[in-house]
Amino acid sequence: MITNLDNIDKVIKILSKSLSKRYPYLGNIQVDKIEEDVGTMRIDIDLDLNKFLEYYKLRLRHHLDDLITRYTDDIEYLGDLFSRKLYYLNTWLPDDEELNDRFGYKKNDEIGSYIYEMMDMLPSQLVPTYKYHSILSDTMLDYPINFRVMNYNVKFDPERYLDYLKKLD
User: Domain coordinates of the chain in residue numbers?
Assistant: First the structure.
């Protein structure tokens, strides 16, 4: 059972602010689902794809550059195309190990760990906890809940990306 959820909005706000300072392309944590039985809170995070690409000096796959150039007059269509929730951004970016380290399982684990570290720095009265019944000692133990990144809500501005491409070339 997850307890101490009275201040969850405040906690999410603090974590979101801290996360966007550490990773300038991420922000706005939203609770997706609370799993009481395992003490996990699934969260969605906004990802500014433009900032992400600029931060790592990356470009989208070549055929997507063509698509963006072709549909520049229909920015609404392109914005909609890129705003879908993604589990793996890698499908739009070049395949390489370095990128997988920056965005993929390792990145999700890193972000999850960072949020967990931030939880340790919060005053104990704010931290949501998970009540766990220890069979060995027959006692109830309090553990901080685990935040798990489930989705990235991708924000993307195709016009800004085209400007960025000009600077890369």
Answer: 2-168
